């Protein structure tokens, strides 16, 4: 069954991600576009550096044009945030992005980006899935017709870069005499950070800056474990920062000058702090239910609201559009700010990281210590617990009944079920337990004032739930 998860449909190539299934999804997207009278505005079709992504994109374009939908096809591999920007820039009716983001090389995927240039909300993907089911039941095979409107090749890279630079303090970066190492991990983000930073006078070194569909035998995931080469290069070259992108450049990993990995939770907190203290911005912050509460403390100090959403950047994008949030982010690395498209963007996040070092004249680690001195230090960790499929129903029932008065020696002062079960403790610590929607895995997100307390909370939750 073809299902759109937290961020699109993904599958193993030649197993379930086949040309036939890609054409089926493209036909359903065409059904959606036509039903909402968006065909005349056109659909952007983008693709990343994965094996056959360009061929899959060509199939999507053929199906769309065969249904009379105008298509803007990327001239080259493009990052997801650039394709989202193209929707806004071209005033298109939406976009189809061929990518599996940070998944292993054997995967590929499809994201649908609606006309508002952010991730598709559930009501949109539900409608597309319904069109897929109708086509499967009727046996309707989408045609890749040559008689429809001619596809138009497009490359929004320059317009995107000009837009991002307007969101950044380029003057401060230009004066800072910085050195930055960029690692796009063989992905679609190759060249973007390098060219923007070099144009501002930053000395830039680049790693893994050519297409490799096997991603060097690893994953295009900018986690601490996958950025060891970047870390070593930053230390060897004496760089101020190392910036790593995932396969479609919508997420960022940061290595500080001393080799410290700056987590997405920490980066989001720093960006929010920077926007309100250095830029003088005022407004709420959006975070998912699984993301750090350090931003809550900063917001409270500034008299601003926190918008808590379910997991998934589509909900963060919605908050950016509907609540006027100045920044929104998630613990998995997605981030965007006011004035940008409501899509997570690792390139923009990287430019903001460079701006913070340039403006404050200190490392991100030092800046984070100052934030900790002011608001308290929080330690976050995600623990994935694999369970047999037969155990999942019982654990889910235990979660529904999970209403303890105390946990790990602290009174429970809040219980929330926006997405999973979240318990907030009197001292500000919290834990969230969510079930994966695609595999027998439960994720335990925990944040507390010390690593030891994080472990105590994790152990207490596992005992109570049977995990």
What this model shows, in words?
The chain has 467 residues and is α/β, with parallel strands linked by helices. It has 3 domains: 9-155, Alpha-D-Glucose-1,6-Bisphosphate, Chain A, domain 3 (3-Layer(aba) Sandwich); 160-375, Alpha-D-Glucose-1,6-Bisphosphate, Chain A, domain 3; 379-465, TATA-Binding Protein, CATH 3.30.310.50. Helices cover 38% and strands 21% of the residues. It has 15 helices and 21 strands. Strands 1-5-4-2-3-6 form a 6-stranded mixed sheet, with helices on both faces. Strand 19 and strand 20 form a beta hairpin. Helix 1 (19-35) crosses helix 2 (53-66). The longest helix is centred in the N-terminal third of the chain and has 17 residues, at 19-35. It is globular and about 65 Å long. The two termini are 28 Å apart. The mean pLDDT is 95. Its EC number is 5.4.2.2.
List keywords for this structure.
Alpha-D-Glucose-1,6-Bisphosphate, Chain A, domain 3; globular; phosphopentomutase activity; 6-stranded mixed β-sheet; single chain; 6-stranded antiparallel β-sheet; Alpha-D-phosphohexomutase_SF; 467 residues; TATA-Binding Protein; 21% strand; EC 5.4.2.2; 3 domains; isomerase; alpha/beta; A-D-PHexomutase_CS
